Amino acid sequence: MAKAFEIEGFDVNNNLTDSLLLLFKSKTGELFHHYDQLFDNNDIEILHNTRVSSRRLIALFKVFRTVFPEKRFLRAYTPLYNFKNLLGSVRENDVLLKMIGEYILGFNQQDVKAVMHFFAKLKNDNINARARLYKNKELKEFKIHKEKLIKFYEKNLLNPKKKIDILDINLSFRENAALILPLLFEKAKKFQDCVYKHPRNKTELHRMRIKAKPLRYTMELYLKAFGEDFIQCYEDIKFFVEKTGDIHDIDVISGHVENYLKEIKIFNATQKGKKEKISAKSLSEYLYFLKDRRNLYFGRVNELLEKWESEDFKSKLEKSVSSIDSSQPEEPVNTAQDVLLVTN
Q: Which CATH architecture has domain 14-172?
């Protein structure tokens, strides 16, 4: 996943209002930094970075939704959410092509026609989807939302007339971590009983992953604020999101493979001679490979969930943000590279 830009002047010890204003503006700048490159270079990584940066900004909106007026919030949030979804199908095709491409490179059998046909089909779908994406009017006109979002933050952030649930406006951004992060974990954990030792519950696993994403992105903002225990908690959440993401990718491509196997079966039924038929062996073997890989990943997720239960992850997380580790820097740290100015 693309690394988040450092934010110049960001200090977790500052008050909540100033911190959130800086974060929203900076994450918006990061998104449009990548967006501005989309049409100059047909690079899959630029598209990926753009989508990841949109997800980071969406996570901010979700976590800190109550600081904005509800009706105005939806007017600002909806175009951003739709933009992220616009990029989703093409990015998913990119991932699937990479997965099967890596498998083909390691394939040492002679009969690979079915797998190569499947790869060609995905490649064609990807080319067409990418062409449609770059012609999409909504994508081209998304640039107008940059200034709209900045004005929205400046006008509506922490309106004093609005009741702020969960957050405490009198505490610093650092101190609010104790209020925000355990709650975000609870939102993901409520799916745990449906997921643990239930590999077929794909929907619940995917929903748990979706709920864990805002927690991951929010914890990124606090990595320099707390000690090693917090960093370990973050690594656990990161591992969960990434590994369940791998499982989701396998589920998606497995569905495509199964459908293509049905197409081959239908085609073969129309052929009289054996030579005219397409052998589905290589594609069937790829499906078995995917199932084995999924079982491996799901086993690792189960181990992590067992660890969370035995160690009481929520309590560990709460404790990690309850005090300041003196080994962590008190002043804001900026790097010379990858620094995104708010004015960008």
A: Alpha solenoid (1.40)
